[in-house]
Specification:
Structural class of chain A: mainly alpha
Number of helices of chain A: 8
Order of helices and strands of chain B: EEEHEEHEHHHEHEHEEHH
Number of strands of chain B: 10
Radius of gyration of chain B: 21 Å
Largest interface: A-B, 16 and 23 residues
Helix content of chain B: 25-40%
CATH superfamily of the largest domain in chain B: P-loop containing nucleotide triphosphate hydrolases
Distance between the termini of chain A: 38 Å
CATH class of the largest domain in chain B: Alpha Beta
CATH topology of the largest domain in chain B: Rossmann fold
Oligomer: heterodimer
Strand content of chain B: 15-25%
Number of domains of chain A: 1
Distance between the termini of chain B: 52 Å
Strand order of the largest sheet of chain B: 6-7-8-3-9-10
């Protein structure tokens, strides 16, 4: 029963977000603030993870390509496609569920427990609109951008690792990147990024907004938000791949 | 004026508020008192609309708040200021931004005008030179005063205070009480205060509602409470010997008599009167 009531409350929360803002300027300010928190706040970890994922992909692909009949430029193709299709959108979003999602859940949870949300309600402010909508909108803008950055850095990391290890030279890697490139891969990755961005921000907001209790419950809500987001990201990843990728 | 008519509220089948009615007048401090768990916070949250009452009506100057739709309620809420028990200041904003927040949200005034108003209310609550400080850098009393400044910055008609003195020393509590009373009279606000504090009760209790296990046990003012014969009320308020002595002193001042159940020493040379039944 709890799962159905949670789904119901989640849908009501999403519906409740869409109402007329009391003051557009204040909402815009909050949106920019959230863009900074979600975007720049997560940029460092996204960059580090992307570079290393690309590097490891190159080395492991080279390790598995033992046949001399396969050209080395294939390494670049495989790295490109794995980074664009899976690593950049999915893995980065799982990390973002931990970084940005837990921050959103704990921020809202703390506001709930310390009666800051009640204070906003008393002032006559629609708290779902003011507190949740800018976070989701900022996630929908910043997370796909982070995913694009992750794609670029992942491929660059793979190139650097290939050159450093003497697996592949820069010219062959660049040539491999252009071979059999399907632009839809990037489109597919961005579709996934938008879906995951909504999952990360709305699930975290849901668990944070409805916290009851004290500091312990804020921690629990934050953990639950990350766990549920990760599961839903993987589930959505499977569904989107099954629906959108031609097999 | 706020009229509360036959309010009932229960959670998961457990009744927390049971048929409470009262009238809270403008220009005076209306106190809701009672032991922990007696339902006073729930009653206050029902009055401000944070909880929906199961039954009954709440009228703000004759307007039925309980029957209002979302947008109508929002209009009433814009006339409400509330001081929360934990102050509820926004952690990420400094003092100036906290107090300015309602102005920025609901007015189109210039920054200069808003800043002047912020400084005016901060001065009114005796806080100056703290505009740039964050809530984490303030003492408990200062936080309450900032929260009070934020609550009154839009000149509300109704002011609600939930345990304004909790966690404060007696001297700071008196400062907060005095401020609340002065502001109430100055702006002719309808002020509703939830409190445990006996000083507040005696100092600012123009109207007192005593709640016991979710129902209204007694109502009156800070003069009448001294003479109340309600046993539960007396046990709650005058729990300690010290407070009973204070009550006896107040009765002596008012009537020239002392209650017969106290062995209050009228003549220090003679020593305390024997307790009834002790001889």
């Amino acid at each position: 029963m709890t799962i159905f009531s949670d789904i119901g409350r989640y849908l009501l929360m999403v519906k409740g977000m869409f109402s007329k803002p009391e003051n557009g300027r204040m909402y815009w300010k909050e949106f920019i603030h959230q863009c900074t928190e979600i975007g720049f706040g997560s940029l460092g970890i996204v960059a580090i993870i992307s570079v290393f994922i690309g590097a490891v992909s190159t080395i492991q692909t080279a390790y598995q390509l033992v046949s001399p009949l396969i050209p080395t430029s294939t390494i670049a193709q495989i790295v490109r496609d794995t980074v664009i299709l899976e690593f950049a959108p999915t893995l980065v979003c799982i990390v973002l569920a931990g970084v940005a999602g837990s921050r959103i859940a704990s921020e809202l949870g703390n506001m709930r427990v310390s009666e800051q949300i009640d204070a906003l309600e008393i002032m006559g402010i629609k708290t779902k609109t003011y507190l949740i909508l800018p976070k989701i909108a900022a996630a929908l803008l910043m997370i796909p951008l982070l995913v694009v950055i992750a794609m670029i850095l992942g491929i660059w990391g793979g190139r650097m690792a290939g050159i450093a290890a003497g697996i592949i030279d820069g010219y062959t890697f660049d040539k491999g990147l252009k071979e059999f490139f399907v632009p839809f891969s990037v489109k597919f990755a961005l579709i996934k990024a938008y879906v995951f961005a909504f999952i990360i921000s709305s699930i975290a907001a849901f668990y944070g907004y409805y916290v009851k209790g004290g500091a312990l419950e804020i921690g629990r809500a934050s953990t639950r938000a990350v766990v549920v987001s990760c599961i839903l990201i993987l589930f959505a990843d499977y569904i989107l791949s099954a629906l959108l990728l031609p097999t | 004026m706020i009229e509360v008519k036959h309010i009932k509220k229960s959670f998961d089948g457990r009744t927390v508020i049971e048929d409470i009615s009262c009238v809270m007048k403008a220009g005076q401090c209306n106190l809701i008192i009672g032991a922990s768990g007696s339902g006073k916070t729930v009653l206050q949250k029902c009055i401000v609309g944070l909880f929906e009452p199961d039954e009954g009506e709440i009228l703000y100057d004759g307007q039925n708040f309980t029957a209002m739709k979302g947008n109508e309620k929002t209009q009433i809420r814009k006339e409400i200021g509330m001081l929360f028990q934990g102050s509820a200041l926004f952690d990420s904003l400094n003092v100036q931004e906290n107090v300015m927040f309602p102005l920025s949200m609901f007015t189109n005034d210039s920054f200069r005008k808003k800043l002047d108003r912020v400084n005016e209310v901060l001065e009114r609550v005796n806080l100056q030179g703290v505009n740039r400080k964050f809530p984490s850098e303030l003492s408990g009393g200062m936080k309450k005063r900032v929260a009070l400044a934020r609550a009154i910055v839009l000149n509300p008609k109704y002011l609600f205070c939930d345990e304004p003195n909790s966690g404060l020393d007696p001297q700071t509590s008196l400062v907060i009480d005095k401020l609340i009373q002065e502001i109430t009279v100055e702006f002719n606000m309808t002020t509703v205060v939830n409190t445990h504090d006996m000083n507040s009760l005696m100092e600012i209790g123009n109207y007192i509602l005593y709640m016991y296990k979710g129902h209204k046990e007694w109502e009156g003012n800070n003069k009448e409470i001294i003479f109340s014969k309600n046993e539960r009320l007396n046990n709650f308020i005058f729990a300690s010997d010290f407070l009973q002595d204070a009550k006896a002193m107040r009765m002596l001042e008012e009537t020239g008599q002392i209650p017969d159940h106290r062995n209050f020493p009228l003549d220090p040379e003679k020593g305390p009167d024997p307790k009834p039944g002790s001889a």
